[in-house]
Design brief:
By secondary structure, the protein is an all-alpha fold. It is built from 20 helices and no strands. It has three domains: 1-73, Annexin V, domain 1; 110-239, Annexin V, domain 1 (Orthogonal Bundle); 243-334, Flagellar motor switch protein FliG, alpha-alpha superhelical domain (Annexin V, domain 1, Orthogonal Bundle), CATH 1.10.220.30. It is globular, with a radius of gyration of 21 Å.
């Protein structure tokens, strides 16, 4: 991290990293236990990259944190209500539910939870012989980006059926989830705990997973689903947040995203973007930066469509992460992505 970087320009992840580095390893470890594997990885990378933290930067981050706690804590409400409000405000209603269940009701699924820490190939190998419905439930439980990686290692002919089952899920009965958790847990360590009713799965879960897949795989799966259930395929498409949806994000959100991505990635992505997206990007850059980017686009020769789409996927992943962190709000159909 640049020691000359103003504290107010630090990203949310960088501020979290500064805070954890400031409170000591024991307290930081206790906090990290409550984060998902993906969050631990992101914050861990940020902490490792911090070579020069000034006292001023540390003081400002700590003051902001303490001030935020004082402003948000209400002594007039119970601890459970406060935790619920805090988690929903921080993560959104859908994403917060499972975390709230684990904290307040002790419903952490230790067997299934262990899958989140495994390599996608290993997860695929573990579940590939299970019934497609079981695989769909597992994919709905994992984070969308991890699920997308797992799907890549599943047999190609089975993918459309599995994604249809993900989209058709309408909650998981407690007994079924408890049984699945027990099966997974037998392969790991620990003891089973009660499982609350889960609202995993559905069209949005399928859309979230497909959003993280390569465009060719994504299109193939949706086309195959369409042959069996055109209404379901259309419903998934409607909920997917694609590169064109960036035009629906407000100017401030676009500016936040631009600070998080490299010029090379942006240039590649815009080679395959429509005029509306390009204009949205240009107007949210400084005049000089906009001119340089437009010049780069003009002088750069043809690029492979796959490379341009990969760059667009990278930017979309950044946008979703920022939305999950509460730094931006996704417009249009993507507003509720978690």
């Amino acid at each position: 991290m640049d020691k000359n970087k103003p504290s107010e320009l630090l990203t949310g992840v960088e501020r979290a990293a500064v805070l954890l580095l400031s409170i000591g390893s024991d307290k930081a470890a206790a906090i990290l236990k409550h984060l998902s594997p993906k969050e631990v990885q992101v914050i861990g990378v940020a902490m490792a990259a911090m070579q020069h933290i000034t006292k001023k930067q540390m003081d400002i981050v700590m003051e902001d944190f303490v001030g935020g706690v004082h402003n948000q804590t209400s002594m007039g409400i119970g601890a459970d209500d406060y935790i619920r409000d805090m988690m929903v405000n921080a993560l959104g209603e859908d994403k917060a539910k499972s975390m709230i269940d684990r904290i307040l009701m002790g419903t952490g699924n230790k067997g299934l939870e262990a899958l989140k820490w495994m390599d996608p190939r290993a997860v695929a190998e573990l579940i590939r012989l299970e019934h497609p419905q079981i695989i769909a439930i597992v994919l709905s439980y994992l984070d969308p980006d991890q699920s997308a990686d797992v799907v890549k290692f599943l047999p190609e002919r089975a993918r459309p059926d599995i994604m249809m089952r993900v989209a058709a899920l309408d909650g998981i009965p407690p007994s079924a989830l408890r049984e699945l958790d027990s099966i997974m847990e037998k392969q790991f360590s620990g003891s089973s705990s009660n499982v609350a009713q889960s609202s995993m799965g559905g069209l949005r879960a399928a859309a979230n997973i497909l959003n993280f897949m390569d465009s060719s795989d994504e299109s193939a799966i949706l086309d195959n689903i369409s042959e069996y259930d055109s209404e379901m395929s259309e419903g998934i498409r409607d909920m997917m947040f694609v590169f064109d949806n960036l035009a629906e994000i407000d100017d401030r959100g676009i500016q936040v995203i631009l600070r998080e991505i490299s010029t090379e990635t942006l240039t590649l992505a815009l080679k395959a973007a429509d005029v509306a997206i390009k204009e949205k990007i240009f107007k949210n850059m400084s005049k000089r930066a906009s001119q340089m980017l437009q010049e780069d686009l003009e002088v750069r020769g043809p690029v492979r469509l796959a490379d341009a789409e990969a760059a667009q996927k990278e930017i979309l992943a950044t946008a979703r992460r920022l939305a999950d962190d509460g730094d931006i709000s996704l417009g249009g159909s993507g507003e509720e992505y978690v």
